[in-house]
Amino acid sequence: MKEFIREAGVKAGILMEALPYIEEFKGKRFVIKYGGNAMIDDKLKESFARDIVLMNHIGIKIIIVHGGGPEISSTMKKMGLKPKFVEGYRVTDAETMDIVEMVLGFINKGIVTLINSSSKEWQAVGLTGKDGGLIIAKKKLISKTSSGKGPSEKIDIGLVGEVASVNTRVLTTLDEKGFIPVIAPVGMGENGETYNINADLVAGAVAAEVSAAKLVMLTDTEGIKDADGQLLPALTKAQAKNMIKKNVISGGMLPKVAACFDALGGKVGKVHVVDGRVPHALLLEIFTDKGIGTEISM
What we know:
Elements: H1 2-25, E1 29-34, H2 42-57, E2 61-66, H3 69-78, E3 85-86, E4 89-90, H4 94-117, E5 124-128, E6 135-144, E7 153-166, H5 168-176, E8 180-184, E9 186-188, E10 194-197, H6 199-209, E11 214-219, E12 234-236, H7 237-245, H8 253-265, E13 270-275, H9 281-286, E14 294-297
Parallel strand pairs: 1-2, 1-11, 2-8, 5-8, 7-10, 11-13, 12-14
Antiparallel strand pairs: 3-4, 6-7, 9-10, 13-14
């Protein structure tokens, strides 16, 4: 009996800690970037879906943007193609673009099914950036400086785009009907060409355009770490920029941080980089005092 009372007290404490956050965020819009191991491990997938359903039930308006990098690379290798990256961005020719669309479409429908099977309300709806002109893209060129000296050069990495604009009317229409958009990061150019866009950048642009209260990036790391490998619970934009200059933030983390900057510039309240390998990572970051990842603010 004593053990039951102790456990009940712990649970009550958790609920009381979460209550102010539930009240604060009811009716607010969150953009969730879903990627990494959280998309692969079955238990983590189920945990993610339950988190989304719970957040939706308590009145938080969710928009999900998902990636699919590991799955795309795996499919390319099976087809005899070698994935290539420049500054964290996938080099994308026409053949690779076909694979990107195929794999992202499969992943997208899987996420929709996962969320809808966790709730009887069937509220998740799958989209790509091409649907309804949701994401208009333009070609992205990568700036790279050889050996860290001299002028930077512009590198063409193929059918890789960046977000030129977001058609919020599509998202508003779904929101009014109570649906949860699940967005695959593919956009359309002004002349109808298809672009592969980094999912982190899509999430940042969408969050900025809808003035989301929060952007949460699920990753395969604890968060952003300092030069000694220690997790930083909080960072300012200026501090993050300095870490990029010193190459402390590099590689695949660069697009994530760039997306965070875009979101903050678009009046997003706060941005969180969270370890998606932790079960119920979303709930732990959003509804507890300490959180589990890195919070970036202006």
